[in-house]
Amino acid sequence: THIVIAFLVFIFGFILSLTTLEWVIILLLIGLVLSAELMNTAIELLADEVAQSYNNTIKKVKDAMAGAVLILSFFSAIIGLVIFIPKISNLIL
Known about the structure:
The chain is an all-alpha fold. Helix content is 88%, strand content 0%. The mean pLDDT is 95.
């Protein structure tokens, strides 16, 4: 999902002619979200390897990491809207 959204952001970024600073911000956020998602996957795989059966503490660790990815994704989306909405409204008007 994150990769598809990143691809769409690239397309819209080129269409809407983002400035260099806007590209830096967008690329940084894409990198952060994808890195967080990879860390989440690594933690889940490691946790599954360490505890073959249900473990409440490991569940909390997995939930916390998933929550961190969700928060980062949410704020990245807000920043993306701050960058893209004025450009889209200028294109429409």
